[in-house]
Design brief:
The chain has eleven helices and 16 strands. α3 runs antiparallel to α11. It is rod-shaped and about 160 Å long. The protein has helices spanning 274-294, 305-324, 336-362, 372-385, 391-413, 421-433, 444-454, 460-465, 474-478, 482-487, 489-549, and strands at residues 4-7, 19-20, 35-36, 74-89, 94-111, 120-125, 135-137, 153-156, 158-163, 166-172, 184-193, 201-205, 212-215, 221-225, 240-252, 261-272. Residues 6-53, 395-399, 417-441 and 457-487 have low confidence and may be disordered. 37% of the residues lie in helices and 21% in strands. The strands form three sheets. Strands 1, 4, 5, 6, 8, 9, 10 and 12 form an eight-stranded mixed β-sheet that branches. By secondary structure, the chain is an alpha+beta fold.
Length: 565
C-alpha cells in the first residue's frame, strides 16, 4: 500500500468556509470529492464512511499553544541554514545574511493513523493556518526581527511539524578593525523565543545528539555543536572565508524572572580574503613609502629633493582621507592600515626635515669653517667606509704627483740652488761698497739673461706660505757693477713691482683654490650624510613594513576555509 500526500490550498480567511482538495493514491490521480471547512480549519465531513481524510473532528485554534499531552513544555528543534554572506558593513558594523530557519516540533492535535486514512502520511498547510513559534533574531539591526515570509508547513502523520521559512537578516556584528584589512571577525546570531520562557518552549539544537555539554566563562552549562549551521546550500563569498560555524545553546536565569531563558547563538568565524586588499591598498602604500628612499639618492644639484618629499606627503594625505570613509570611526583601536600609513607619513616628514638639513650642509659657504671632528669622521673615515669616491681628492693627488715630478726633474738639471730676489736685494748695497768688484758695462745678452732669470718664479712656496721668489745666480750678481746698479735702479723697482703682482696673483689663486676645496668638503659631507640617511631609511622602512603587516594574526593563520561539497 502506497503513502499519500494531501495538499491544502491557501485561504485568506480560514475561519470561514474554505475548500480543500486531496489526492488519493487509489483513485490514480483523480479527485474523489470536495469538502468544506465550516467554522474551523479541520472540522470536515465524513465522506461515505470511508474516513479518507486524516483530520480530527474537534475545533483547531491556531492561537492555542500546542503543548504536549502530559506537560506544558514544547520542544522545538531549531537550526540555521546559511545560504550566503551578502555583505559586511564595517562602517555600520552590520552583517547581511541570507538563509533559512529550520523548525521542527510535535503537535499532538495534528496526528493521525495513516492506515485509517488511505495511507496519507504527509500534509502541506499554508503558514497562516497553523500555530507558529515566535523565534526571532535578538541582535537584528534593520527591519522587523520576525519572519516575513510564511511559507507552507509540512505536517507528518505522527504530528511532527516542519517549517522552513527563508530569511534575510541584517544583524549587529561587533567589527574588530584592529587588523584591517587582514582582520578576522566573529559575528553572533542570537535566536530565541520572544514570548515564551524556557519552561514553556524548550529550544534545542536540531542535531541534539551532536551537542557537547560544557561550561562557559560564567560557569553556566552550555550545549555546543561544532557545525551548528547547515551549509549544504551555502554560496561562497568573494570577500570572506568562512572558517567555523559554532552553535551554542544557553540556558540562563535572570533576576527578573523565575523561569530560565533559552537561546541558541551561532558564532560565524569569517576571515577577510587578502588578495584584493593587498593589491589595492597595501602595495600602493608600500610604493609611496619606497619613494621616500629615492629622496636621499637624488643629487642636491637637481634642486628637486624637497619637491619629491612634498609630493609623496600630499599623496599619502589624500590616500589617508580616502580610507577614513571606508573604515568605521572608532577611538578604541587603530586599524593596521592606518598604523602603517601613519608610520609612512612620519618617515616622509622626517625625510623633509633631513633633506632641508642636507641642503643646508651642501650649500655652505667657504668662510664657514669645518670642525676638525667633522672632517675626520665624515671625510676621512665614513666616506671610505661607505665607498664614496671623491673626484676632488683624485684631482689633488694628480696635481701633487705632477708637482713632485717637476721638482725632481728640476733638481737633476739645475746643480746650484737658486737664490731669491730678497737675498739679491740684500746683497746689492754690499756690492756697491765693494772695492774688489770689477766695474764694467754689461752686454745686452747678459742683461737679457738676468731678466729672464729674475722673472723665473717658484710657485711651490706661494701655495704654502704665499711667498714668491725670483731666482738669480751669484755669478750674475758679481757681474753687476755700481754703475750698472745705478743705471738699473728703475729695473729693480720694476722687478719689485712684478714680485708684488705675482705674489698677489699667487695668493688670489691659492685662496680661490682653498675656497673651492672648502666648499667641496661641505658637499662631500652632505653626500656622506645623504648616503647614511639612505641606508637608515631603507632599513627602517623595510623593518617597519614587515613588522606592521606581518603582525596581523591572519598572516600566520593557516586554517582552511570550510569546503562545501
Amino acid at each position: 500500500m502506497h503513502s499519500t500526500q494531501v495538499s491544502f490550498l491557501s485561504t485568506n480567511n480560514f475561519e470561514s468556509n474554505a475548500s480543500i482538495c486531496f489526492l488519493d493514491s487509489r483513485s490514480n490521480g483523480f479527485f474523489n470529492s470536495i469538502i468544506f471547512l465550516p467554522n474551523s480549519i479541520f472540522q470536515l465531513w465524513e465522506l461515505n464512511k470511508k474516513k479518507q481524510v486524516p483530520i480530527s473532528s474537534y475545533r483547531y485554534n491556531k492561537i492555542a499553544f500546542p503543548s504536549g499531552q502530559h506537560n506544558n513544555s514544547l520542544t522545538i528543534e531549531f537550526k540555521l541554514s546559511l545560504d550566503q554572506i551578502v555583505d559586511v558593513h564595517e562602517k555600520d558594523q552590520v552583517i547581511t545574511l541570507k538563509g533559512t530557519l529550520v523548525h521542527h516540533w510535535f503537535d499532538f492535535r495534528l496526528s493521525w493513523n495513516p492506515s485509517d486514512f488511505g495511507n496519507i502520511t504527509l500534509m502541506h498547510f499554508p503558514g497562516e493556518m497553523l500555530w507558529l513559534p515566535d523565534i526571532i533574531l535578538y541582535n537584528n539591526a534593520h527591519g522587523s526581527p520576525w519572519v516575513s515570509e510564511t511559507t507552507q508547513i509540512h505536517v507528518s502523520h505522527d504530528g511532527r511539524v516542519t517549517w522552513q521559512p527563508p530569511v534575510v537578516y541584517d544583524a549587529f556584528c561587533n567589527i574588530d578593525i584592529e587588523w584591517y584589512p587582514y582582520d578576522l571577525q566573529i559575528c553572533e546570531l542570537k535566536f530565541g523565543s520572544w514570548t515564551y520562557g524556557g519552561s514553556q518552549l524548550n529550544l534545542v539544537h536540531l542535531n541534539e545528539d551532536r551537542a557537547n555539554e560544557s561550561q562557559d566563562s560564567e560557569g553556566e552549562n552550555v550545549w555546543k555543536v561544532e557545525r551548528g549551521v547547515e551549509l549544504s546550500n551555502y554560496q561562497e563569498s568573494v570577500e570572506w572565508d568562512l572558517l567555523s560555524v559554532e552553535g551554542i545553546r544557553h540556558k540562563k536565569w535572570y533576576p527578573c524572572c523565575d523561569y530560565p531563558s533559552i537561546d541558541i547563538t551561532y558564532y560565524l568565524h569569517i576571515r577577510r580574503k587578502k588578495l584584493f586588499y593587498t593589491i589595492n591598498m597595501i602595495i600602493p602604500c608600500v610604493s609611496l613609502a619606497s619613494l621616500t628612499l629615492w629622496v636621499f639618492y637624488l643629487p642636491c644639484e637637481s634642486h628637486q629633493k624637497i619637491q619629491l618629499c612634498i609630493s609623496v606627503l600630499v599623496a599619502l594625505t589624500i590616500y589617508f582621507l580616502m580610507l577614513i570613509d571606508i573604515i568605521p570611526p572608532t577611538s578604541i583601536v587603530t586599524p593596521l592600515i592606518l598604523k602603517y600609513l601613519s608610520f609612512t607619513m612620519v618617515m616622509v616628514a622626517l625625510s623633509v626635515t633631513f633633506t632641508v638639513f642636507v641642503q643646508n650642509i651642501h650649500y655652505r659657504a667657504h668662510y664657514q669653517p669645518m670642525p676638525r671632528f667633522v672632517k675626520k669622521w665624515f671625510i676621512e673615515k665614513l666616506g671610505k667606509m661607505l665607498l664614496i669616491s671623491r673626484k676632488t681628492e683624485q684631482a689633488q693627488y694628480h696635481r701633487t704627483a705632477q708637482h713632485e715630478k717637476i721638482a725632481t726633474m728640476a733638481k737633476k738639471n739645475t746643480p746650484p740652488p737658486p737664490k731669491s730676489v730678497n737675498s739679491l736685494f740684500l746683497e746689492l748695497p754690499m756690492l756697491n761698497r765693494s772695492v774688489s768688484v770689477k766695474i764694467r758695462k754689461p752686454s745686452v745678452k747678459a742683461v737679457k739673461n738676468r731678466m729672464r732669470r729674475l722673472l723665473s718664479i717658484d710657485m711651490t712656496d706661494d701655495v704654502r706660505g704665499c711667498r714668491s721668489y725670483i731666482l738669480v745666480s751669484r755669478k750674475d750678481v758679481e757681474e753687476i757693477s755700481p754703475e750698472t746698479v745705478k743705471d738699473t735702479d728703475p729695473d729693480r723697482e720694476k722687478l719689485r713691482k712684478a714680485e708684488r703682482n705675482i705674489h698677489f696673483i699667487a695668493k688670489t689663486l691659492t685662496d680661490e683654490r682653498k675656497d673651492q676645496e672648502a666648499e667641496a668638503d661641505w658637499q662631500f659631507v652632505s653626500l656622506v650624510i645623504d648616503r647614511i640617511l639612505l641606508i637608515f631609511f631603507t632599513v627602517t622602512i623595510t623593518i617597519g613594513t614587515v613588522l606592521t603587516i606581518f603582525s596581523a594574526p591572519t598572516m600566520c593563520d593557516d586554517r582552511e576555509p570550510i569546503k562545501i561539497n
